[in-house]
Structures are given as C-alpha cells and as structure tokens.
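Hi R.,

As promised, here are both runs. First protein below:
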Amino acid sequence: MPSEAVLGQELLDERRTETRRYKLRFPTREALEASLAIEAVGGAVAVALPERRVISLDVPAAQVSFMAESFEAARQHYGAEIVEDYRYSLEQLDFYNPLAFAPEGEAQQSLDDVIEAIGAPQAWSHSRGEGVVIAIVDTGIDGLRPEFPHYKRHPRSWAANGEDPWTDWQGHGSMCAAIAAGTRSQGGEFDGVAPDAMIMSCRTHFYDTELAAIYDELTSLAREGATVIASNSFGVQSGSPPPVPADSDFIPALDDAIAAGVIVCFSAGNYHHLAGGTPDGHEPNSIWLHKGRSDLLTVGAAKPDGSMWYYSSRGPGQFPGQPLTSPKPDLVGITPPFGRVVYGSNVSVLKDGWGTSGCCPQAAGLIALLQSKRHAEDEPPLSRDQLFDVIRKSSVSLGHHGHSQGAGRLDCEAAVNRI
C-alpha cells in the first residue's frame, strides 16, 4: 500500500491539474514582499523569485473569478503586472497511455545494452562521474528506487513550495536520472552513463517561473565552484514553429547559468512526425526555440541499428543563421524499441523507445565522465566549447544528414580517450 506521504503527493499532483498558474511581476522587491498577503485570499505561492521581483500563484480553477479582485488590488497598490505563467510541455511520446508500455516478456534490449553500445563501461576505467553534479530538470525522481541512494542525492535538490523533489509525478524524471547517473551500488537494477555522479533532482511542472528558480539555483552552485551539468527533456509540443514565450524569466536565468559555467543539454524534441516529416527524411525543421542555441547541446534519437527514430526532431533549428545559434541537433543518443528502463517506481518496457528524452541524459552523463576525468587528473574542467568539440569529434556518423544526426552517435570511450 502507498504510504501517507505518497498519497499526499498524489493528491497534490491531482490538485495541480485543477489549478491555473499566474505570474505577478513587481516594480521593486519591497512591493513583492508587501504583496505576499495576497496568498491569504485564495492563491498559494508556488515559486518566489525575489531577485527577479516575481512570484507565481496556484489558483484553483473554481476561484479564478474570485481572484480577479485580489489581482486588481495587486495592480493598484503594488504596481504588479499579472500574466498567466507560461508552461512548456514534457518531452514525451505517449507515456500517459498504458498502450505505450509492453509486458516484460516483449523486451528486446535494456538500459544495459544502451550503456554498452555507447561505450560507457569502456570509459569507466578512466572516470565514473565522481565530483560532478547532474541536475535532472524533469518530473522529479522516485526516491524509493535503489538506483538513487541517499549518498548520491544532492542536498540542494529543488521543488516548488509544498513538493518533494524525490517524488516523481509522472515517472519520466526517474527514467532520465537512471540513464544519466543511476547506480547498482545499493541494489539498483541499472548503472547509468556516469554511475558515480551526484544527482540533483529538479522537480518541475515546466512553468516558466519554476524553471527560472531551478536555473538560479544551478547558477549559485556553479558560482560556488561546483561542476554542474543540466539535463532537460521538455519543450513545445508542436509540428509548426511556436511563438517565443513572452515575459520569460526562464531564458534570462538560463543565460545566467550558462555564463556561470553550467553545461546545459536539451533533448531535440519528438516532433518530426508532427511536422509532416517522413522517418528517413531530414526535413522539415522541428527543433524549436532555445534548442537552437550554440551554447547548449541538443540531442536527437537513433535506434540501435543506426536508423533514425520517426519522431526525433530535425534541424537546423527555428532561427538558423541568427547570432548565437548553430546547426542542430549536435548529436544523437540511442534508444531501443521495446526498451527496458526505470520508469517511476518500476522497471518498464516502452514500445517506441525512450524518446529524445532518453538520449539527452546520455549526453549529460558523458559530459560528467569527461569533467570527472579532468578532476581525477588535477586538471581544470574543460570549457563548454572544448566539451562540445570533443563530443562532436568523437561521435560516430550513422550516415544520415546533419539535420537528423548532427555529428552522429555519441561514443563515451572515444570521447574520454580524446582528452
């Protein structure tokens, strides 16, 4: 039977689906602090960003009209600007659908096979990720899974007010964490790419303000001297170019984190078929928004046989040729059909693989191996540009157009041997 804590978390998650999230931006920090009494009249503060002069409120759907008076008071008395908090989509296939999962007996390959195919075990003689923090910006991580023992959990793991980062509201975040840095050391079923890396769970519902708060925390860690890698598997689920989100705090926070030295990986997206692309086609473009930036690594998805997954988003990115962009994806990971992997509290078999979501943490784990090797040799960490150059140049071409595969399939052994 689920514990009371688990049941309470499930109720919280259910309540989240019945709320609206609003962002309130104030002219000064003092105005923000004075306004927090608004919580007493129907809204619960989910995130506070005092340095950015922003709070976000969860408002039960039934109370939205009631809150109009309170919002108007916030405008008049505190100068607040009020907008609905932008929400990104979980980078998923149809993981909410039970038909996306298959019985254990239908498994063709598992995470072990993927780890072997990308050369991670061969790299472990040089490095296993020690001394590096991998932040999993996702749906949380199931702390009951033995792949995530307490000694691997970063003490500054993050969740919105009232939530626990070591619970997973969907299952997806546990999958990404296991791929990047799960361990068998305490009875886990799988090792990830970097099994000795520290894991920082950053549990989010993908609201702009939550992502800003997470990246502000990652910035602080990096400025304090931590080696931080962020794995992100969310985006905008669309077959056509989405508009740039207005009034974003996440993008400025992302800028700050990258400037502070956080190495950022993003899944390319699972939108190629939504854009009308054929499985073997390298167009049209379906990599959206910030995933085209040159200062982050964008990762697509191939099958173990080297063919591209039908859904893996193709480049070159939404804003090709603009300043600070580069052709995308940078590379691909691999994910098997009917692949067996941690998903939430269970080990499950996913018919259509793990999406680009399951490939992004492979790249994050590889970066952890590279930086950890530098630590072990008493050498300074590689710069972002050095890391990306090593990873691209050591990747194995699968024979596809660059808009599909980038530089090719990542190779942990070759990358570690290159530095």
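And here is the second one, sequence first, then its structure tokens:
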Amino acid sequence: MRPFITRLLFLIFWLMAYRSSVAQAPARALRLDAAVEMARGQSIWAKQAATQKETAYWRWRSFTSDFKPQLSLSGTLPSFTRSFVEVTQPDGNIAFLPVSFNNSSLNLALSQRITRTGGTVFAQKQLQRFDNFIQNSTLYNGIPMAIGISQPLSQFNLWKWDKQTEPLQYNESQQQYLESLEQVALDATVYYFNLLIAQVNLNIAETNLVSSDTLYKIATQKLALGKISQNDLLQLQLGVLNAQKDLASARQGAEVAQLQLKTHLSYRGEEKLDLAIPLPGPAFPVDAAKARQEALSNRADAIAFKRRLLEASRDLERAKSNNGFNATLTAAFGLSNRGNQPLDIYQKPQDREFIQLEFSIPIMDWGRSKSRTATAKANLQLAQQTVEQDKMSFEQEVYTQVTLMGMLQQQVNLTARADEIAAQRFQIAQDRFLLSDLSITDLSIAIQEKDRAKRDYILALRDYWRAYYTLRLLTLYDFEQNRKIQ
C-alpha cells in the first residue's frame, strides 16, 4: 500500500509542477518544410537573390541589344556665333572682322556591328544649314544617302569574345539564383534545428527540474521514515539547484535561437515559434556518378570554369593584338549636294567618296609588348591550373556529400531507436527509485542517458537534413523526385 501512496504523491507533485512550468504565451506551430518555404518566399536573402537575378537579366538584355541595328539621330541645333575673328589678308596683314552666323546640322544614322570581324557597317543621311546674318544669306549642305564601313585591321576583337563569355555569364547568374535559394533553404534548416535543439534542451531542463523537485520532496518523506540517508537527500537537493541553473541557461539559449530564426525568415509576428521535430528524411538512393554529372551540368561553378578559361585566353589574345601593327580602315560612298533650299540637295546630287586608313606601328617599346604577352601567357597557365584544382575539389565535395548522406540515413534510425530505449530505461529506473529499489547514482545515470539520447536524435536529424539540402545545393538536383531543380 505504501509504494502506491508514494507513486500517487509523486504523480500529483509532478503534474502540479509541470502545469506551472508550461504556462506560456501562445506560440505558432512551425514545421521544417514550412520554415524552408517561408525563407525562400519572404526572407531578405531570397529577395536579394531575386534582385541579383533581375540585374543579370537586364545586363543580358543590354548586351544582346548591342548586336542589333542601332538607329540614332544626332545634331547641333542651334550653333550660333557672334564675334570678331582673325582673318589673314592677301597682303599678309591680320584683320579682325565681325561674324554672326548659325551653323546647325542633323544626322540620321543606322549602324550594325559585324561580330566576326569587329567592324561596323552604317548608313546615314545628313542635313546642314548655314545662316550668315551679316550678309543675310542661307545655304544648305547635305548627304541624301551614304553607306560605309569602319573595319579595324589586326586589332583585338572584344565583340567576338563577348559573344562567347556573356552567354556563359548569364547562364551562370541563372544557376547562381537557384543556388542562392538552396543556400537560403540550407541556412533556414540550420537555424531551425538550432532553435529546435534549444527548445528540446529547455523542455528537458523544465522536465528535469520538475522531476528533481518532486523526487526531492518524496526523498524528504523517505528520510523521515529512515529509508534514505542524509547524503542521498543532499545529492537530490544539489540536483534541484543544478536543474534550476540549467533551466535558466536553456531559456536564454532558446530566446537567442528564436530571434535568429525569426530574423532569417523575416518573420514579423510577436508570438513564439513552437517547432515540431521533423520526421526522419526519405530514404532514396544517390548514385555518386550521377551526382557528379548533375553538378557539372547544373552548378554555376561548373559554368564559371569554362568562362574563366575563355577570359584568360581572351586576355592573351588582347596582349598579342595590342603589341604590333594596328590599323583602322574607314570607307564610305554616297551622294552629296548643296543649295539655297533644303530640297536642293536632292536635285542632281554628286558622288561622295571617303576612304581613310589610320595605323600605328610600335618601333621601340623597351620590351613592354613582350612582357605583356608573357604575363598573359603565365596568367592563362595559372587559370588552367587553378580551374583544374577547383574542379577536383568540386567533384570531391560532391562525392563526400553523397557518401555522408548514406551514413546519416542510417544514423537517424539508430539514434531514434536509442532514444526510445533510453526513455523506457528512465521510466523503469524512476519506478524502481520510488520503490526504494534503485540508488540516487543509478537514477542520475538514467536521467543523463535519457537526455543525451534525445539530444543525439535531434542532432542526427539536424545532420541529415543539413546534408539533404547541401546535396541539393551542390548538384541542383532533387534526388528524391529524380529531376533537376528549376
């Protein structure tokens, strides 16, 4: 009969203390998948990624527009001058004569880049008007039609290289956006489990305080009955003090983790987040060869490998092209005329031809050209070596993550089973202590093992879900659904 009364008292004390300890403000329940989606949808980091993606898109639009025909209107209207100018007379003397005129012009031009050669073809129309206010006369000059070409000779063609590197850079930005979202999801998982572990520690601390306090009160009765020693009672009293200290520390840790998760999710609600323990992740096979293939196909880093090599080759060609003969040929053919009226320039216009060759040849540069070329060659070799090393590290990281996934799936199952066993063992130990069939030391060991098993299980879940989202980040592939991440 007495063991039954002892158990009943223990249960009453425990329920009263537990009810007071869990009286908290309303909280919002939140699961891991909901937290991840919230982070992807509204966090400041997700918005920054979207902004960077939009910036890259408009840069790409600006680049592609440069290779389309460009129509422009330019001119000087008006261009009025009233002054005295220096005029040399037939006898060699200088006279300063007054002038008052307006010299205005309009030019309509259509141009098109030639990517392969680096040149530009153009067509233009031009009209010029000259008003002499002193002589009260007006003259018109114009080009009804002209076509021409401006072609660099033996010069570096940046447009040709941009045609190769800019598409890679744009694709790189698109994949970088997907990686940013996966990184947001990974960070949300880290903060989620930080808070979950803090809440589990808080729950353990609250439960341990309730249990320690209840056991101490029951032990006080046992001491009066002579069933335990004063030393055991003092040990239980010390356990109550330690439990109070652990509870204060756990509350502080939970508050900090709560704030960090809310900040990452950009969550504005004032209520606390009450996190649910996620279920063990889905078990799905991950083939290392496929993971490597998807990573090299999808990741921004893999695209960057090609871009970095192209840019190094571009810089080498630039150094070679700028070290020798450089010239630009400009040629144009059209019609031109003058008259007293604007339409006079269209009446029997005359041929208009223009050809010009500009060139430069270095004669003595004291080895500067050779040094620039040698530097560019060395940079190309360094880029090739660096890319090769980065590629090996990249592939090794993917392989390591695939191996880790398989191990962590098994680890979750083992720690879940250990958590169940430790909880059952603690219940048995607690019942035996109430029956005076177990020492304080053995009960303390059972409590510690129970707490450690619970924490180990949560940590195993954390490691698994972190590895899950890390694998998605490294490959941009969803192995659970067997499809690329879009």
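A quick note on the second one: The radius of gyration is 41 Å. Let me know what you think.

Best,
J.
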